[in-house]
Amino acid sequence: MEFRNLGGSGLKVPALSLGTATFGGGRGFTEWGGTDAKGATRLVDLCLEAGLNLFDSADVYSAGAAEEILGAALKGRRDRVLISTKATFRSGPGPNDVGSSRQHLLAAVDGSLRRLGTDYIDLFQLHGFDALTPVEEVLQTLDGLVQAGKIRYLGCSNFSGWHLMKSLAVSEKYGLARYVAHQAYYSLIGREYEWELMPLALDQKVGAVVWSPLGMGRLGGKVRRGQPLPKVSRLNDPGTVKIAPPAPDEEVYRVVDALDAVARETGKSVAQVAINWVLQRPSVATVIIGARDEEQLRQNLGATGWNLTPAQIAALDAASAKERIYPYWHQAQFAERNPFPTG
């Protein structure tokens, strides 16, 4: 397994990490998966055998059950792994059970530590931006948790460019711990990350922790033109479809056709090619893969250890090109001063 620095930090993370949204399966996550502690332990075993030692969760995944199951699966080998989890979204009925206020974050971190069965979190990320809480309050709280040893590295998730840049500026102004990671959506059918967040990440040394590299399962090889959705799929759940990254069907089919062609050339699966494309993009530190079972995990682990050729990348780029919104379409006309990010 290849290891990369997480943004500008000294922390080394594996190119692939395992997401635990499939652990538990309750409270709106039934269609994602229902892995119990025994199944999770087996998945962790396979990950560690492959060199994957970063596991990502969140307090809202199956109402906390995912963290509990992950903690049970990691029991006795905490020193061998990195744990990432998140908070901000509503986790209870109370007025302070949501957001990034000091009140909520302190309670959320203690709750995650308890469920995970650990006394520190390697990477703690805000699950979303809280526009109702001052950025100074958020970062002072997170810095205090770092100083207390409960959190080692900070990240955010689903921020816009100005959310992230303002946060970094506040950290610099007051000498507070800064975000070194941004957990963001990025896939062949969701390339908007490239327009602003990628250049920002490279400039400010914030590593991308990519979620849903398969576009909520649509690039897994089972969604095809003229065929019904697979019987077992998150896309069968109306709640999931409501929050799934948007992508017109024809766009999905066009990208899958291109993936099919490259898969034939490489001898890899469609999903492996789609994940490998993301792995080779600038600013990407780690790509979160999910797995309902051992076979799916083994397939996704096969996305590493090889690279697409420049010609294959160019073919996938062309098939997945998307019309930009302003000001990005305007900036793209002046590549001499606004070149595509590299590195």
Q: What can you see in these coordinates?
A:
- There is one protein chain.
- The chain is α/β, with parallel strands linked by helices and 343 residues long.
- The chain has one domain (3-332): TIM Barrel (Alpha-Beta Barrel).
- The chain has twelve helices and ten strands.
- It has helices at 37-50, 65-73, 102-116, 135-147, 161-174, 197-204, 238-243, 249-266, 270-279, 294-301, 310-320, 328-332; strands at residues 3-5, 12-14, 16-19, 54-56, 82-87, 121-126, 151-157, 179-185, 207-211, 284-289.
- The strands form two sheets. It has an eight-stranded parallel beta barrel, surrounded by six helices. The protein has a two-stranded antiparallel sheet with strand order 1-2.
- Helix 1 runs parallel beside helix 10 and helix 8 crosses helix 9 (270-279).
- The two termini are 20 Å apart.
How do you describe this structure in short?
The protein has 343 residues and is an alpha/beta fold. It has 12 helices and 10 strands.
Features:
8-stranded parallel beta barrel; alpha/beta; 343 residues; 38% helix; TIM Barrel; 12 helices; two-stranded antiparallel sheet
| Average residue pLDDT | 94
Task: Indicate the percent of residues in helices.
Answer: 25-40%
Question: Which structural class fits the helix and strand makeup?
Answer: alpha/beta
Name the CATH homologous superfamily: NADP-dependent oxidoreductase domain
Strand share of the residues? 5-15%
The outline comes out as globular
Spatial gap, N to C terminus: 20 Å
Strand order in the largest sheet: 3-4-5-6-7-8-9-10
Number of domains: 1
Q: What is the N-to-C succession of helices and strands?
A: EEEHEHEHEHEHEHEHHHEHHH
At the third CATH level, what is the topology name? TIM Barrel
Biggest pleated-sheet summary: 8 strands, parallel, barrel
The CATH architecture assignment turns out to be Alpha-Beta Barrel
Q: How big is the Rg?
A: 19 Å
DSSP E strands, number:
10
Specify the number of helices: 12
Query: Uncertain segments of ≥5 residues (pLDDT<50)?
Result: none
- Mind telling me the CATH class? Alpha Beta
